[in-house]
Specification:
Blueprint: E1 5-9, E2 11-12, E3 18-19, H1 23-32, E4 35-39, H2 48-56, E5 59-62, H3 87-103, E6 107-110, H4 112-120, E7 124-126, H5 129-132, E8 142-148, H6 153-158, E9 162-167, E10 172-175, E11 181-186, E12 191-195, E13 201-204, H7 215-229
């Protein structure tokens, strides 16, 4: 079986420099049987470049990072806890994921990547969980249970009612985007995962690449790579 090429959106600093991206993403792809390549954030002067990139890869892994501008979902910035990514990266990532939707290639989004999938499909976010959800547990730096919805792609891959995940986010999905199905929630009902029925498009609020030695997290990447190999 040919090893699929998986594109990973890279990081960008405010002064326009390509910054370090954790090797955990590439290692997870390699362990699952894929070939990772890092995609540079490009100014959208030629949108054909985005299509050319998508045509060269078999799957798209959307990495974590800081925050999308709330203007993408019709809101103003709530407070100083919202740390925006560089404008060039935001626009590139948004165009990248929308083009990937159109080409129907497998997509796996983690943390910011899950939020990006949601907003690209018209969904909204909690800009700051601690300030907007009174009943919320600690999501910023912790581990907690995530309950999986039976019958979903995520549940079929993992095969458990719940798993323990890492948690390092201050934002989360508030309203799901068009055609997205909620497949996982934390014990405080915060949405921890979404998917698009009919293909492979998973958005996960945690970082499975940081837990790649755990069977259920490894299985996620294996399923992603298997889908991309088709």
């Amino acid at each position: 079986m040919k090893k699929p090429i998986i594109g990973i959106n890279g990081n960008l600093t405010k002064d326009g420099r390509y910054s370090k991206l954790s090797q955990e993403y590439s290692r997870a792809i390699l362990k699952a049987g894929g070939i990772p390549i890092i995609l540079p954030s490009l100014p959208l002067t030629d949108k054909r470049a985005i299509k050319c990139i998508i045509d060269k890869i078999d799957g798209l892994l959307l990495s974590g990072g800081h925050d999308l501008s709330p203007r993408f979902y019709g809101e103003s910035t709530l407070n100083k806890k919202v740390i925006l990514l560089p404008e060039v990266k935001q626009r590139f990532d948004m165009a990248l994921v929308k083009t990937a939707f159109g080409c129907k290639i497998p997509i796996l989004g983690t943390c910011y990547g899950a939020q990006l999938i949601n907003v690209a499909l018209g969904g909204t976010l909690f800009q700051d969980i601690a300030g907007q959800v009174k009943s919320a547990i600690g999501h910023r730096k912790s581990h907690h249970k995530v309950y999986l919805r039976e019958g979903t792609l995520l549940h079929r891959i993992i095969g458990k009612k719940y798993i323990i995940t890492n948690s390092s986010h201050h934002q989360s999905i508030k309203t799901p985007g068009k055609n997205l199905l909620i497949n996982a929630r934390a014990q405080d009902s915060i949405i921890e995962g979404v998917e698009m029925p009919g293909g492979f498009c998973l958005g996960l609020q945690w970082h499975p690449e940081r837990m790649i030695d755990a069977k259920e997290q490894k299985d996620l990447f294996k399923a992603f790579i298997e889908s991309a190999s088709r």
